[in-house]
Amino acid sequence: MDYALQIQKLLIRKEKLSSPGDRIALLKQAINLADAHNDVEWGFELRLELIRDEKETSRCDESLPAFTWILDAYDKNPELFNEDDFLWEYKWMLGSVRRNSSISLEQIESISEDFKTRLLRNGYSLRPYYTGKVHMAFFLGNSDDARKYIDLRNKEVRDDMTNCRACELDDEVELELRLGNFDKALAVGSSMLTKKVTCTHMPFSCYCSCVKYFQKAGDMEKAYEYFQKAEADLAELSDTSQIAEVGIMIRFLTDYDREKAWPFFESHAHWNVDSEDYLDFLFSISVLPLLQGGETVTLNVNPSLAWYREDNTYDSKEIYSYYYNKAKDLAERFDRRNGSGYFNEQLAEALKTQEVKQ
Fold it and tell me: Which of 56, 249, 299, 318 could, after both became Cys, cross-link 239 (CB 3.0–4.6 A)?
């Protein structure tokens, strides 16, 4: 059978599947066929499709090597492709390299500058470039830099490579929440928080940020208001990429309605399997307060979890140790990479919250 026909049949099968993992498995088969026949154009398109499917998960196992291949294929064969074909996905990859503790700050900066170069030579503004800088500043816990880059971003022209308005508003709300400017945060994000402007994960992700910061400020009534909004939106989401936000919801329920926190954890813990390092860290520190009580619990969880037991009976302290060890390891790796103590500070805050509660 002609390999192109085989690829097309695999793509038809893929479109009938709902699981991103199953879809990616078929795409990998198709990519292997394209590569075996040195078909660069098929290899290019299939890898882009793979990246789009994996973005619906908490993982980034296949996307980074696929995107590295795409960049190399374009640079070697610029006559075959347009950079426009993959610049949107490049924005996603900037996030992924930031979230990977094995990639150095120097590499991240080099990748960011390469993205900037490609934007400019294709006639785009630097708005997406500065968005990446905003997210890096949040990642490093630097609110001053976040403010600076938001201001620079907002001076740039909006164009076809710009994030949607809802996502940009989320950045502005996040900054004000971090600074404790709650009234300003809600005013700045009002059009998004009231769903006048939306996107796939907005305002769900922003609702979760509101839950997190109102809870930290001790305003549990306001936190619950946004938890309810987030819970309603979560029911409509079909992907697992929002695992960090789910962690925020579990953390809130641990203090607000502990009995409800357990089934929420039970239903969503497997979303974190093989997740990106940063998402893994955030989820791990979020669930520690729930698990530290030492209860014996019955949980019907997904068998893909490393701590799964066939009898469904668990010592919560054993699960606690699993997530604590992961959080501690990732905090050390990120802080060593970043040259700071910000991740260990976040872990210490989670542990301190437990001690106060006890």
Answer: 56
